[in-house]
# Entry
Amino acid sequence: MAKKSAIEKNNHRKTLVAQYAGKRKALLAIANNEALEMEERFEARLKLAELPRNSSATRVRNRCFMTGRPRANYRKMGISRIALRELGNRGMIPGLVKSSW
# Structure
């Protein structure tokens, strides 16, 4: 189980990403538009730099929603390999068959 503070920090980052997504997208569109003047693009970059760093989507870490484990996550299910194995052994995941030979 991951530290509670690490999980909460990641959840806070997710809320900030959702909150600033529209503003960040608009500023990036202005900053990357080469048809505009250099001053306008530079001002957009400065405003973008003033936004909170944790509002960037790249700062969010994929974590297992059951245990909070940050590594070996399956995107499709949102759980770690360990949680997947435990649920599979219990027969809780439809279509997952335990292999033995």
User: Anything to note?
Assistant: Residues 65-101 form one domain. The chain has a mean pLDDT of 93.
